[in-house]
Structures are given as structure tokens and as C-alpha cells.
Amino acid sequence: MSAFVVKNASFWISNGAALVAVTAAVKGATTALTVANTLAAGDFVYVTGSGWNSLDGKFGKVAATPAPTASAITVEIDTSAETAAFGANAQASLLGPSNWLEACVAGFDIAGGAADSISVGTFCDSSAALAGAPGASTVTLTGFVDITSSGYMELVKAAGDGLPRSFKFIMPQAAAPGDAAPPVMLFNGTVSFPDQSYQTGAAAGFTCAVTLSGRPTLVRTTA
Fold it and tell me: How many CB atoms lie within 10 A of CB 118?
């Protein structure tokens, strides 16, 4: 068992830059994507609309080899089992250093989407029920209102435009002390408008929810 205290961590939100078209892909243990980009090894992409289940809604780390170019990258996602044609409407969110804004949150909680119970009760059995479809997982963010923070203002902007954002939590090195770099958790979703609290003599705080598009991805860099 390895336990750790959350110190020296950081939390980031993507800046909502426009998606770019992915015009082709070559499947394999790593996946080659044809896409105009300025990414470098270690950056991330988030792909939708490809029609490949192993790729859509996943974060791919840009591989060191083959080296990224202005028109192509290789991502560390295994698509070798795909049999469908690559989708003509595939798009990617490019997540390099210029696409992240630090959001100085005080904490966040991830809740899995539980299935609601659907009653099929009758006079014979009033307690009969079926399991419904699970709801979307959510992340609850808490922090302090700081209108001078670009990260906080991006949360407010995301709530206003309703467009998805990506989020990055760089965990403490203590989470995996033997790794070459701290682990990174990534997730994507839409943001609710922050509930804000202003009380005399207290720090102005906020709480908001992110409805996730899929499961969070944990990326480790082993030595």
C-alpha cells in the first residue's frame, strides 16, 4: 500500500481553443494521427468523432518517437484492434503548454454516476424495480473566488459557453515515488456555473460541478 498527502500538486483547465480536424490515422500499438499541430513529446490530445472506440473520448500522450511534426503526431493509444474505417469528422483538442491555464482550486471530489432505480411495482409486488442507466460521473471543484486568476475566469467562461473543457491534475511525486515524473490525471467535461459565497469576514468561496464526458485517465511515466 502506498498513501500520500496532497502537497505540491497542481490543477489546470484547458483554454477552450477550437478543435482541429484529424484527417487520417494509422492504427497500431501506438496511433499515428495526421493533424496540424505544434505539440511536443509529452503533450496530450483528446480525440472525438473518429468512430474508433479505443480512441474517441480518450487522452493520448504524444510519443517521443516518432517525433511530432507540424502535420502529424504519434499518440500512446493502442488502436490495433479497430476494424472500422476512420471517421471523416474526427477532431482533436490539442493540449500543449499554451493550452493550459492553472486553476488554483482548494480541492476536488470525483463521484461515479449511480443508476437510478426504476419502479415496476404492481399490486402483486409493490417493491419490484429495475436498474436504470447509470448517470454521468461528476467532479465537484471547490476554491476561492479570484477574478484576477485566468484559471478561475476560464471556469466561469466554460459555464457560460457550455463547451467542454479538459482538466489536468498533476499529482504529487509522492503518489508514485519510483516514477520518472509525477502521475497526471486527465478528464473532460462541461462546467456548471460556480455557486459563490460572500460572507463578512470570510474568504469568498465557490463550488462548481463538472459533468464528465468519460472516465478520468491516469498517466504515469515509469522510470
Answer: 11
Q: What phi, psi does 156 have (nearest 5°)?
A: -65, -45
Mean per-residue pLDDT of the chain? 93
Domain positions in the chain = 10-113+130-221
Closest listed residue to residue 98, CA positions, set 181, 169, 16, 157: 16
Confidence (pTM): 0.89
- What is the Cα–Cα distance from 188 to 21, expressed in whole angstroms? 18
Q: What is the CATH number of domain 10-113+130-221?
A: 2.30.110
pLDDT tens, position by position, 85-132: 999 999 999 999 999 999 999 999 999 866 667 787 888 888 888 776
Burial of 14 (C-beta count, 10 Å sphere; 0-12/13-18/19+): buried
User: In the structure grid, which three cell numbers stand for residue 112, read together?
Assistant: 461515479
CA distances (Å), origin 59, targets 40, 84, 87, 93, 94? 15, 20, 18, 9, 10
